[in-house]
Every structure is written in structure tokens, then in C-alpha cells.
Amino acid sequence: MSKKYADIIIDISHEAIDRSFQYEIPKALEEQVQIGTQVVIPFGKGNHPRKGYVTGISEQPAYDEHRIKQITEVVKRSVAAPNKLIALAAWIRETYGSTMIQALKTVLPVKKTVKASAYTASALLDDTSMNGKPEIVLNPAQQSIVDRFASDLESDRHHTYLLHGVTGSGKTEIYVRAIEKVVAKHKQAIVLIPEIALTYQTVRYFRAYFHDRVTVINSRLSAGEKYDQFMKAKKGEVDVVIGPRSALFAPFEHLGLIIIDEEHENSYKSEYPPRYHARETAIKRAQLEGASVILGSATPSVESYQKAMNGEYVLWTLPERASGGALAETSVVDLREELRRGNRSVISSELASDIRDRLDKKQQIMLFINKRGYNSFISCRNCGEALKCPHCDVSLTKHQGNRLLCHYCGYSMIQPDICPSCKSRLIGGYGTGTQKVEEEIHRLFPDAATIRMDKDTTSVKNAHERLLEQFENREADILIGTQMIVKGHDFSNVTLVGILLADLTLFHNDYRAGERTFDLLAQAAGRAGRGRIPGKVVIQSYQPEHYAIVSAAKQDYRMFYESEYAYRQMMKYPPVWNMMVILLTSKEELLLDAEAGLLADKLKLIFAEDGQMQMIGPSVPVIAKIKDIYRRVVYVKHNRYNKLVEIKDYTEVYIEQQKLDEQINVIFDFNPMNIY
Ligand code: ADP
Ligand code: ZN
Ligand code: ZN
After folding, report:
1. Is the CB of 488 under 6 A from ligand 1?
2. What was the pLDDT predicted at 233?
3. Ligand nearest to the CA of 397
């Protein structure tokens, strides 16, 4: 019998050994060692025991047979992953830039030895007591979507479908019906849901259909608990795995469908290397395993909608609420006008009179103030303009010493005293938080009971759920909160939603500001009038003519998309072009500055000649230093993604050849979701 050899990636995240090594598989271990198995091997001159993953098996020794060492043992309870997950890891490594071991650790479920967690399997996992709901009869729009899916499945056609359905249009019902079809063919499904939307309600919906054939992964599970759920998937004991981003790697043997709900959410992009996007990675996994993908959203990402427009994805639309109820009426209040009429309160006169009306009718109200980006930009209350970078068309960020800085290109200016557009002196940052809003409400409506939800009031365990429950039980008239109140909660008695300063997201300092604003406004609008009584949304803004606000007020996604796409096209932002962040970090600031500059020059020299590359930086990121490690960023834009991958590969080699890898660490981020 011939000998067998395994290619093994050593479990150390270091570029220098980011390649596989060949080891002999001892006869006794032959059955256990498969692609994906975790093993112990002697490594280096001292033959130190190291862990590694098997990435390939062959009968050919790569070099002198006698010098090939043997695998020592198989790590107990490690799971051999299907080959396809290894292939997916290789794709992740290549596409997003990381070491192979980081990529493997992302896709392979490994039993970690951890202390038993105090928090055992959550209530979400235990509850199998559901009796099933009254049978829902699909409406014609839903039915034709499910029929299309069924016929594609029947004839083995696999697509990525983009389900664009307004809030409450019955997308979840489509998901469960599609999964039923898949399960009927003895295949399995993964459902990704952003952690924040992974509520008891959602899980109950799936339980009603799939009972104990569905399992839930959430971040509160210990590594061991998560591993056990993954094992159920592997053994075919469940048909459906629901969870946030990492549930994408559930090791099903016969994957038929991946669903990504709220596909536009930022949380689908990993913030740690490898910085993969779950949407792109899901589509890759589906392609490798012959599965389909359904992306669902009321406000699709510009990326996905573009692909639906050019035919790469199949577009499905649900323009109406499943219950037949009307979408909320929307009204935009111009805060500049309010100011001119002498109202300096954060509550406009229209909103105030609506609040009075609802209080008298014993209906409930949600007031929403987005804290993100709060006070970090400068804008004019007279004309509504924010101070922007002349090169990048994003808002400048306020720094110490009255400096305003662009975090893409490093452009800076001293904060002016008068507005450059209208010469008004009413220029500055916003100074309102949830607490001030609550005080103002008590001043205007002494009879109203309020609940405030923000970082301060929800830091205690379970406070979040408790406050929402109190509101649901009508213990308060008005819920005041940050973005945490916008997502996923249905209160049938809420008939008025007020968005106090829509501009706080609009003037965020990156190119996705418009998209975020539209999302947030559309989601907030989705909160109003979920019951029988029609709802109203009041959007207050200093720049009500901005396309994101106009289109959100009209609840017209297509209108938003067209303006947003034109902006991305003009400024060469994703998805029209692609963007890669090269983040360089070092303890030595002088060295870092010098080398970042040299690298940027070198890249320009080599890659800029075709005129299809733009480079910004090196510049100092928002957080210039973390724990005495200095940071610099280079933004590279190119119309072709593959070219950015080439630039990444080149940079890796360059850093190694210049012998800089000891002093400078390099991280890549493709089409980043956040500003650096
Ligand atoms: P979405 O995910 O699109 O925001 P949901 O799936 O939560 O919407 O559906 C909203 C509500 O409408 C749910 O209570 C759901 O049970 C109900 N629903 C879905 N489809 C139908 C239908 N065809 N007829 C009646 N109610 C429906
Ligand atoms: Zn002005
Ligand atoms: Zn700039």
C-alpha cells in the first residue's frame, strides 16, 4: 500500500509561514485525517509540536521521502470540513487579504476548550413549544415569487435573488416558503440575520414552520455551544441554521439555500481580518456548492441594487404591506424655517402639535435622535450646508484646535466663523443628545410619561428588553432613543415617529452617508402605523432638499438609488469603482511616515499608468494611534477589483522584500464600510 501525504497549514498567523508543508499520514490515522482535519505535527528544527489544518491529501511526496515527517496526532473533536469550505477559505484569503490560517479559522468550526459559560443555551434555543400559527395565504405578489423560486429549483437553476420589499411586506413568509421547497429536496438552508434583529419574534416565526429542525446561533453562545450547533448541521440533524454573519459557515453537507435578511446591514462585513463581506462570501459559497441565495431588504445596498439592475441578480419586489395597511404618511420639516420663525427648540411646531394630538388620543410616539457622528461636523443652520472636502465631497470632521479634516485625503482647514455659502454666523456643531430631548419634552408636555433608551439607560443587563416591554405595555407615551429603537420592533399603538435631526447621519464623514440616511429614515418610517391606525413620520432637517431626505419622504427607493448612483459615479466611489484601504501600523512614527510615503509613490509608479487608479494618502486616520501604535492609511481606488487584489499582493511582497515586516504591520480592507 502506498503512503499518503497531507498538505498542512501551520496554525500561526504569520506571513512568513503562510504556505503549506507536507507531512506523512501514519497508517493508524489514515481514516481520521481528511481535508479540514486539525492535526498536531512536529515543526521546525526543534520539532516543536504545532497545530495545523490539512488542506490537501496526495500520494506523491513533494520532496525526498525520507525527510518527510509524520503527523503526530489528530486534534480531538475537530471537524473535517467539506473540501468546499477549504476552497472558500482560499477564496477569502485571495479576495480580502489575510493569512490562510486566518481564513481557515473563519470557515472551520473548531471545538475551543473554554470554561463552561454561565450563560447556557439561550431561551431562543430551548423554545420548541410553538404550536404553529394560523396558516397564511400568500398574496399574489408573494405567490409569484415563491412559484418562480420553485421552478428554478426544480430545473436546477441557481441564482442570487434580491427581494426588495417594503417593511411589513411579508419577506419572512417568502423565506420560510422557499426553505420548505429546499428541504423537500433534502437540502439545507442558512438564514443570516443581523444580531440586533435576531429577536424572539423572528426565531418563533421559523420555529412555527421547522420546529426542532432549526437551530439558532447567536453571539451569546459559548464557543462550545456554537460548535455543538454546527455539529447538528453537519450530521444533518437540522435543516436550517439561523444566525448572524458567522452562521454562514455552518458545515451543511447539502446546502441548497442561503438567505441574507437586511442585506444592506453593515454588520455583514467583518471588522477583523479576514475582512470578508458575508454577502459576497455567501454568493461564492453558493456557487461552489450549487446553492441559491436570497438577499432581502426594504432598502437594498447600492451594491446589490446595481447588480439587480444589470441582470446579475434576479430582482423581486414587494411594494405593499402584506396586511394591506398603508405605509405611513411622511412630512418633512425645514428647521431653517423654524429658526427664522424664532423657534429654537429641537421640537418643531408641526411635530409639537402632532405629539399633542397623539397624547390626547392615548396613542404612542417614538422620537429618534441619531447620536452617531454627533457634534463631529460643522454645518450652517441658516442654509443647511455642512462644510465638506472640496476633493472628496464628504463632510469634514472637527478636531481639536478648530481644525476641520477630511479623513479620506487629509485636506484640512481652520473652522471659519461665517458660512462659506451664505455668510451667516449661525455655523457650528449640533449640541443635542437624548437627555436634552427628554428635558425638552417634559417642558413642553408635562403630562407625558417618557422612556429614554440610549447607552446610559441600557448599560444594565436586559435593560434594553425591559424598557421595550414597558413601552409595549403602554407604561409610557413617548419612547426617546438613539438608532437602537429603529430596528425590528413592532408596536401596534405607535402612530407617530419623529426624526429630530436627520442631518446627523447625512453629514457623516464618509461616502455612505446618503445611503445610511435613507436606510434609517425608511426603517423609522416602517415603525409608524404597524397596527390598524395609519401612522405619520415627521422628518426634521436643515437640508430637506437633499435627495436622501426627499426620496425617503416619498418612500421612493428607486429615486434614491438613481441620485446616489450618480454621486458614486461622479466621485468614483464603490460600487461604481472599488476601494481598498491599506492600513499601516507601527510603533515608530517617523519610520511609518517615511515608509508609507515610499510605498504610495511606488504603487503610483507601477499601477497608475493606465489612468484607472486613484490614490489618496497616506493620511492620518480618525484614530491616529491606538495603544502607542501609530496608524496611517492609503486609499486606493480602481475601476477593477482584480487590480486592487494585484496591488494588495504587490504590497505584501514589497513589505517583505524591504524587510519592513518586523516593524510595520499591514492590513487590507476592501470596499470598507467604515471610515478609518
Ligand atoms: P417584512 O419582513 O417584509 O418586514 P414580515 O415578514 O415581518 O415583513 O411580515 C409582516 C407581517 O405580515 C407578519 O405578521 C406576517 O405574518 C404577515 N404576513 C405575511 N404575509 C402575509 C399574507 N400573505 N397575508 C397576511 N399576513 C401576512
Ligand atoms: Zn450657510
Ligand atoms: Zn478629501
Report:
1. no
2. 93
3. 3
Cell of 287: 456557487
Q: What is the C-alpha to C-alpha distance for residues 347 and 199, in angstroms, rounded to an integer?
A: 32
> What's the CA gap between 69 and 665, in Å, rounded?
32
Domains of the chain: 4-107 (3.40.1440.60), 121-318 (3.40.50.300), 329-376+431-569 (3.40.50.300), 578-670 (3.30.70.360)
Could you tell me the distance, in angstroms and rounded to a whole number, from the CA of residue 509 to the centre of ligand 3?
A: 10
- Whole-model pTM: value is 0.87
SS3 content of the chain, % helix, strand, coil (to 5): 35, 25, 40
Residue 663, classified by CB atoms within 10 Å of its CB into exposed (0-12), middle (13-18) or buried (19+), is middle
Ligand (nearest to CA of 138)? 1
Per DSSP bridges, beta strands 613-619 and 450-453 are unpaired
Q: Ligand 1 centre from 601 Cα, in Å?
A: 55
Exposure string for 449-474, b = 16+ CB within 10 A, e = fewer: ebbbbbeebbeeeeebeebbeebbee
Q: Whose CA is nearest to atom 19 of ligand 1?
A: 170
Ligand 1 atom 23: residue of nearest CA: 138
Give me 491's grid cell.
Answer: 408596536
Instruction: Read off the pLDDT of residues 122-154 as tens digits, 9 standing for 90 and up.
Output: 444 444 444 458 689 999 999 999 999 999 999
Q: Summarize pLDDT for 301-312 with one digit per residue, the tens.
A: 999 999 999 999
**Span from the CA of 382 to the centroid of ligand 2 (angstroms):** 5
Residues 510, 675: contact at Cβ < 8 Å? yes
CA of residue 616 to ligand 3 center, whole Å: 8
Q: Which residues, including other chains, have CB under 8 Å from residue 51's CB and lie 6 or more apart? A: 10, 11, 38, 39, 40, 41, 75
CB 320 within 8 A of CB 287: no
For the CA of 133, the nearest atom of ligand 1? 16
